[in-house]
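ok trying this again, last paste got cut off
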Amino acid sequence: MTAESTKILELAQKFTPHIDHTAFQEDDSYRMALSAAAAADDRKGEDILILAVGEVSVLASYFLIITGYSRAQVRAIAESIKADLQDQYGVQPIRSSGQSEATWIVQDYGDLIIHVMQPTEREFYDLEAFWGHVPRFALSKSA
């Protein structure tokens, strides 16, 4: 196992540790989602959740949802994720929106769509309930 694979598995263990993440470690989109989640965690993002929507949607393979508690924090999380994915994978979002309002920033990376939301927007739109039937990986509170 390479050093990068080991690091990805360590990141995965921050997510619902009772799930065998080895099946996902070869999935580039999942690895990007884990890297983005780690970048969000570094910026104190909370309630970090990966939804595996690929089996039921053509939109993407994964959604990453993060809560930020102020406009400045939402922007900082989104910028940190963007920089991290550029550095690690050489990718930029295909499209993004919401930077000026910073209550809900969406970054579309194709197979990975990232939602950085303030609590009011996250509660109102409730993406977790809409996609409630898909596998989910929640960042452990003890992490």
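PB: full thing came through this time. The mean pLDDT is 85.
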